[in-house]
Write a structure and sequence with these properties.
Blueprint: E1 2-12, E2 25-35, E3 41-48, H1 59-65, H2 69-72, H3 78-89, E4 96-100, H4 104-116, H5 122-130, E5 132-134, H6 135-143, H7 151-157, H8 169-184, H9 186-200, H10 209-212
Parallel strand pairs: 1-4, 4-5
Antiparallel strand pairs: 1-2, 2-3
């Protein structure tokens, strides 16, 4: 079994574009890591993606992600980039399972495929439609959280410092993979997450809402 942890970064579709009726965001970066049976990284994937419905990366998105117009100028467009990612995922003989923090990236891919007319191969459909897991949902459920927590909060609970730049797709994927390693190790989970849950709940969950909960799935105009 190979475990793939993926993250996307997006730019807003131009407000004047009819495309916003289908999809308000466009993928501008795909980052992922592949893990072996022991959840150790064995491969990584990154590509920037050239947007088609906005002539520029907005200042807010550049500030958030570090991605500039120059970085996507010669990048593949979405259909080619997604095909590249699919081929990378399928480049192993083992069964594949894909994880993302929340379902927002899966929803984004689905909407963007509709917008841009991407047709998946049979093998791509198998992994994208049947092997994609919302790790955030599983994490929140196991720890008894009724609302979604952000990746940073989850890492804090596990006693792990974020390594790299936040909102860099590959760095986000790697940090999510680090959390997955702890989550899947019962001994580490009991040591780091169970104690954190008992000491944190419900004292902090009622405060600092903006720090605790994950609002990254919301699209702001």
């Amino acid at each position: 079994m190979k475990h793939i942890v993926v993250d996307l970064e997006m730019n807003t579709v131009d407000k004047k574009s009819e495309a916003r009726k289908i999809c308000r965001l466009e993928t501008i970066e795909i980052g992922a890591v592949m893990l072996d049976d022991n959840l150790q990284e064995i491969s990584s994937f990154r590509t920037y993606v050239k947007p088609e419905y906005n002539d520029e990366i907005t200042e807010k998105i550049t500030w958030l992600t570090g991605i500039t117009d120059a970085m996507v100028e010669n990048a593949p467009r979405f259909n080619e980039a997604l095909h590249m990612f699919g081929n990378w995922c399928l480049g192993t003989d083992d069964e594949v399972r894909i994880y993302a923090w929340s379902d927002s990236d899966f929803i984004q891919i689905t909407k963007e495929m509709e917008l841009k007319g991407y047709e998946m191969s049979v093998k791509e459909k198998e992994i994208f439609e049947n092997k994609w897991y919302d790790f955030q949902k599983e994490f929140d459920s196991k720890l008894g959280f009724e609302r979604q927590v952000s990746l940073n909060t989850a890492l804090d609970l596990a006693g792990v410092d974020f390594n790299g730049r936040e909102h860099d797709a590959l760095d986000d994927a790697r940090n999510t993979a680090s959390l997955l390693q702890i989550f899947r190790d019962e001994e580490l989970f009991e040591k780091q997450l169970r104690v954190a849950k008992e000491t944190l709940m419900p004292k902090r969950m009622g405060s600092a809402i903006g720090d605790l909960f994950d609002f990254s799935g919301f699209a702001f105009a």
